[in-house]
Amino acid sequence: xxxxxxxxxxxxxxxxxxxxxxxxxxxxxxxxxxxxxxxxxxxxxxxxxxxxxxxxxxxxxxxxxxxxxxxxxxxxxxxxxxxxxxxxxxxxxxxxxxxxxxxxxxxxxxxxxxxxxxxxxxxxxxxxxxxxxxxxxxxxxxxxxxxxxxxxxxxxxxxxxxxxxxxxxxxxxxxxxxxxxxxxxxxxxxxxxxxxxxxxxxxxxxxxxxxxxxxxxxxxxxxxxxxxxxxxxxxxxxxxxxxxxxxxxxxxxxxxxxxxxxxxxxxxxxxxxxxxxxxxxxxxxxxxxxxxxxxxxxxxxxxxxxxxxxxxxxxxxxxxxxxxxxxxxxxxxxxxxxxxxxxxxxxxxxxxxxxxxxxxxxxxxxxxxxxxxxxxxxxxxxxxxxxxxxxxxxxxxxxxxxxxxxxxxxxxxxxxxxxxxxxxxxxxxxxxxxxxxxxxxxxxxxxxxxxxxxxxxxxxxxxxxxxxxxxxxxxxxxxxxxxxxxxxxxxxxxxxxxxxxxxxxxxxxxxxxxxxxxxxxxxxxxxxxxxxxxxxxxxxxxxxxxxxxxxxxxxxxxxxxxxxxxxxxxxxxxxxxxxxxxxxxxxxxxxxxxxxxxxxxxxxxxxxxxxxxxxxxxxxxxxxxxxxxxxxxxxxxxxxxxxxxxxxxxxxxxxxxxxxxxxxxxxxxxxxxxxxxxxxxxxxxxxxxxxxxxxxxxxxxxxxxxxxxxxxxxxxxxxxxxxxxxxxxxxxxxxxxxxxxxxxxxxxxxxxxxxxxxxx
Length: 760
Hints:
Elements: E1 2-5, E2 8-14, E3 19-26, E4 47-51, E5 55-60, E6 63-68, E7 73-78, E8 81-92, E9 97-102, E10 109-113, E11 125-128, E12 146-152, E13 156-160, E14 166-170, E15 177-182, E16 188-193, H1 197-208, E17 222-224, H2 231-244, E18 250-253, H3 279-288, E19 292-297, E20 300-302, H4 308-313, E21 328-330, E22 333-337, H5 343-359, E23 363-366, E24 379-380, E25 383-384, H6 385-388, H7 392-407, E26 414-417, E27 429-431, H8 440-444, H9 446-455, H10 475-485, H11 508-523, H12 525-538, E28 543-544, E29 562-564, E30 568-570, E31 580-585, E32 590-593, E33 599-601, E34 604-609, E35 617-620, E36 624-627, E37 641-647, E38 654-661, E39 676-685, E40 688-697, E41 705-713, E42 721-724, E43 727-729, E44 732-734, E45 739-747, E46 752-757
Parallel strand pairs: 17-18, 18-19, 19-23, 23-26, 26-27, 37-41
Antiparallel strand pairs: 1-2, 2-3, 3-16, 4-5, 5-6, 6-7, 7-8, 8-9, 9-15, 10-12, 11-14, 12-13, 13-16, 14-15, 20-22, 21-22, 24-25, 28-29, 29-30, 30-35, 31-34, 32-33, 32-35, 36-37, 38-39, 39-40, 40-46, 41-45, 42-43, 42-46, 44-45
């Protein structure tokens, strides 16, 4: 639908019943149809046009757009319920173009990317300009990953589909106004709605792309610091993990792989032979120990680097107004910036990555990709620095993602970056929260950052476990951060090297506690990998706010607890010396302590005693938790042998769970039928508990015999009888733990059924 007004044209396009796009094209401008974020194609949506003297309404089964002619106003509704309306519409000021909307008084607003502001971001005018904040703690208004997205507690989302820099004003003047402000570009936004938070995210990630499955090893433990100086140091560190039997899947090598010191070498992008005499052999040896190698790279080429002249000769760098490479100073030296918008720059950069992948490198760390320093006068092939600043990291991830697709089509890339934009998840980007302070304040902001980014499509947002900035040696802080890390997307301790980030170099007690956390992380691999699958399918975050399932109003602004997947409730310890903690148990469910099986009713708040060796962790009654046997690397996990814990409670009449399996390496396993989904169901009626196990096996995946130990928790007395597929078996009931153990050999070609007759 096109609407002509005196200063231009509005173009309204429904994508489907839950997404509509509105663009304004001012007089004298032509419509730019290209979006960095959107990949969904609009469907033919059944709709009707309802016209009257003063209004026009475009009505679909879900979303409707109402246009009032005098005074002109566009408003949106979903299934008859008003969502949001434009206030001023498009207005051009001296330096900024703006679009304003009306908010209701009660709405809580989320979004804007990575910030540390508290969950409700209403009341702030947020700058949209990716900029690192070194050593931040509990408050940071501008950080490394901004996004032009607003989500409302009313379960709708507005995505301003435009790359250039600007502001997102979330009612800073307290006059119930939302304003998007930009220096230039598209005046396009999408309104997305959903019947639940899960639907809303599914719809938004349909619009901007789903996250591919990460390589399975990405869910393991990383050894990382700033940084390993030599090949010998890398090899000795990895060997120490193996000697101490602390599981490990990857080592990350920071800037010393291409230079002896911090300054002067960025852009060399090749192993320094003095320090790393035989990198190919090193990578091969690490792989033989089931450890992946990840290298840091940056988009800056210093004028003092070995490759400076090569990049000048090959026309790789962004330019000044005279067409020469744009040179500027920053912390690491005098530099140019790779112009990834110039096909020559893009090809040159990918060639570096291809060479590293050919050597055996399996992960790319893209650092400083805001870009850290990006002068406004610098020119890219497609326009000014300010026009692409916020999508530079996004397009850098795209470059790596597309390069792998072409040259390494059978390998899932690992792409770790701290800057990007809306939609970066579809390139497999794994973002982290930047240079957080190594302090309790630094830890306190992490759940909020991860929850907010998960709500904006980036399900793998995580932190440098233990904190990054500063030389603070605090064993309690380190322990609590690593315990929190078990239940956040990526397990990667990383820090400045004066205080070790790796548990193997901490004092014995701290090391033992860290080992315990890491071993639990590996035990949960089948559960966590299934969360990755759910994220890939539906955009569902791995970490989820409590308000996703409990509509208690106070939870709308609460990040002190969260769900890990759909079964776990996590209450991290964020302060020193905490011996007791108030825990809220979300309503409509019964909860069990993961460690003691103590039972808690939903909708209640309890003060619980804390423990040194774990954080408060609870499991939802009716949940199925698949767990793996101990391992030293995810490479040892095959999914043929596992424990299946079922949390029984008489209040749960039926429930479901699943376990997803594929080879953990090849892209698009699910899409090509190279997978299995093991489905679990429970039914409880008249003292009989029935557990059903069946498998959905892809056409290119071989069924197998699974050796499963089914552990039914919270069975208060010896059952009367247990039958597997009609045959009586004994099982083992433990009177101390109230757990029932049922060994099962399951051919996944067939459904299997366990019937347990309980004593009253």
